Structures are given as C-alpha cells and as structure tokens.
Amino acid sequence: MDLxxxxxxxQNRRQFLTRSGMGLGAAALANAVxxxxxxxxxxxxxxxxxxxxxxxxxxxxxxxxxxxxxxLHQRHGQPLPKExxxxxxxxxxxxxxxxIICSSAFKFSPHGQSGLxxxxxxxxxxxxxxxxxxxxxxxxxxxxxxxxQTFFCTGSEIAGKASMGSWLSYGLGSMNRDLPxxxxxxxxxxxxxxxxxxxxxxxxxxxxxPSRHQGVAFQAAGDxxxxxxxPPGVDRGARRKAMDLVTRLNRIQQEKAGDPEIExxxxxxxxxxxxxxxxxxxxxxxxxxxKLVESYGPDVYKAGSFAxxxxxxxxxxxxxVRFIQLFHRGWDHHAQLPVNLRGQCRDVDxxxxxxxxxxxxxxxxxxxxxxxxxxxxxxxxxxGARDHGSYxxxxxxxxxxxxxxxxxxxGGISYGKTDDFCYxxxxxxxxxxxxxxxxxxxxxxxxxxxxxxxxxxxxxxxGVEPARVVKEILA
Length: 475
Prior knowledge:
The protein is α/β, with parallel strands linked by helices. It has helices at residues 3-10, 13-22, 26-36, 82-85, 145-154, 164-172, 236-257, 260-283, 290-294, 306-318, 337-361, 432-442, and strands spanning 50-56, 108-111, 116-119, 132-139, 182-186, 216-218, 323-328, 368-373, 377-383, 392-396, 400-405, 413-415, 417-418, 425-427, 430-431, 452-454, 457-459. The strands form 5 sheets. Strands 1, 4, 5, 6, 7, 8, 11, 12 and 15 form a 9-stranded mixed beta sheet that branches. Helix 7 runs antiparallel to helix 8 (260-283) and helix 10 (306-318) packs parallel to helix 11 (337-361). The longest helix is centred in the C-terminal third of the chain and has 25 residues, at 337-361. The protein is globular and about 75 Å long.
C-alpha cells in the first residue's frame, strides 16, 4: 500500500478534513512522496548542478555600479521630467517632494574584450566582466525592503511561501548525504552602518514544502550549526544509541499516523548526526593553500565576514551543496551614498572575484550558476543632499542590475536597456519571475511543472503570473 493510501486510511473524517484544510492534505502528500523518497524531478538536461546566490540586501545603486549613464552629468541638478517618472509609485520618503536628478559621483570604464562598463568601485570584479551576464533590465513589484526581499527569495511578497533553495531541494533532491541541500551564510558585519534591515528566516524557509527542504543557516560564532556539538558528558557512541532509540519510536508512530513529517524528522536527525563529522571538516581551512585563501581579501580570516563566506561557498560547492545563499547587508543608502557604497563594495569586490576565479580553477564554474542581486535598485534623483559628496538615493523597483555567471549562461554580455535617466526599462525587461524561471531552467527544471498543491492552488516559485525563461542569455 502506498504512503498516500495509508495516510487516508489511517485518518478519520475529521482528522482528514482538518489536515487538508491546513494545507498538507491528500493531494499535497501524494505530490510530496517523490521528494520525500529522494527522487529527482528534472525535466530536461541541466547546464548547472548548483547555485551560489549572492544577495546584497538593501538595494545596491545600479547607477553607481553597473548602468553607465554618461549624459546624466549634463542633467545633474535638474528636475526629473514628468514624462519619465510618469506618475509611478514612489516611497513615502519621496512622495510630494522634488525629484532632482543626481548623476553618479564615480567614474566608469570599459573592461575586458566585451567592453562592459563597470564603476571604479569594483576594480577586482572589473577583471571578470567577460564571464558576467549583466542584466540591466531587472524589475520587481515591491517598493519596500521586507516585501521586496521576500519576493525575490520566495516568489511572493506574502510571507509563508517556499524559498528558492527549498524549491530546488524539493525538486532535485540531494547530491551530498552528509551536508544539507540548502545552506545560508549571512555576513556578521558590513561597512555601511546605516539603515540595516533584519533578515528573517522566512527568506530561506520551506513554507508549505516538507521541512527537510528549509535552508540551514550557518552561524558566525560558536558551532557553525546550532546544537551541533554534543553536550558535556555525551560522546558520539552515546549519541548514536539515543538516536537509534528515537528512530525506533518515530518508526512506530509513523506506522500509526502515516505523517510524512515524521519521516522528515528521522532523516533530519540522521543528517544532523552525520553533520557532526562533515561540518567541522568543511569549516577547517588548515589544508587550504594560504595564497589562495588570502586572494579572498584581508577579511577572510574573520569569522562571519563576506570574504570568509565566499570561501566557504566554494568549499560547499565542491562538496555538492545544491543551493548556497550569501546575504550581505548595508546597501540601503538614503544618505551618504558615496561614502557608504564605497565601503560596501570594498567588502564584496575582492571576495566575489576570488570566488569566480577559484571556481574556474577547480572546474566548477561551468556547472555552478553564480548570481548577484539585491531586492531592487535606487532612484536617479537625489535623496537628502544633492552634492556628489553626500547624496542618497531612494528605492526604485522599476529597473535595477543583476548578473549571472557560469552555469551555462553567456559571459561578457549586457542584456536589457534602461532610458537615459535609468528610470524605466526600454528593452528586454526581466521580471524577478523571469529571473527565477531562468535559474530553474539552467538546473533542468521547467518552472511551470514543478508544483506543490497547497490551499487549493498548484503552487510554483514563479506564481500564477506569466514568467519566461530568458533564453537570449543562455549559452
């Protein structure tokens, strides 16, 4: 008898209806069985096996980093034309105020054979432009941080949906039995000290998917994973005996209830036991070549630094962790942007460059999709002071820059265009849903077919609105 039938038979009518109403009903369970069994749902040949997602929380200014607008200097200090702003939604911080154009304080130069323009703030990354697919026409729906971050990470502004890494874990299964499918590394410190929003666990949560697919957040201090070490007086043998007893009790309860979350608990407890051996080995850098370690920058020896996390991401990639997400906060620059943005770029420029080079040297670049994004962009008009020493920029969801590298994506190209004011997309728009669909496509998943029935809807990462794979950027 299959798990679905056992579940139905073992529930009385009231229990069955209650569970169905809560979401993990019969249809969802039937759909979840392949993932619980560890099967892979691949719809076509994959170009990438894994993703390293570099999330710059706060909204980096595309105007000051990647979207070069040389003519904007001639309009500096002028009002933004109303035909450009077009009555679009703005934040409460800007509503009713003058929108005065502010050109970038930083110089741009062409780099590589591709000639892509990059800001002087990214001297290291500039050397890698021929590997980058720069998407200048990314746009989103949300205009404030929390819903925008939730949208980019889960496909919905509403909290409670499954995150990107959870969907990939659910759809593709695990490549490594000793480490989680989905790991999250958050920077413990950053240079921009103002307007720093909290990161909520829902950004890497499993939502309605079985809990084994949620992201595992590594800690900057103490045990890399909470409660990984045995308590004083408990050795590995004693822990093994306790685990075996708990597993036997869980199996008995599983026979009675048929609840898939019991099976999840068993597998996660076994994973935790194996991680007591695999995680210390993963985080031990003593055997790494010191010259290579130092290529990640001076912060690499600081626990919880973005540099250290980039090195850890490479070590996880070579151990076949499926989805590795790095969060770096401090990019919300409503004031003093020239000072704060410089520091933020110094945090990430050298580590990201070292990560790309390291992946290439180890033959991992071709099947690892590296992604760089924030939740939205910044406005072309100034916020606060308008001089080039201390201007700020407000939130801008209508256009911003992201990039992809490796994993079967074309390098050295710029895709999409914005108007002369960097305010509206004028060519080849890429919505966040399109971004998700393209990422999933590179891992062999059709975003329309990877679904999970929940609350009467076939849930997808890309939701119910139209989404397309951006095939023009694929190699």
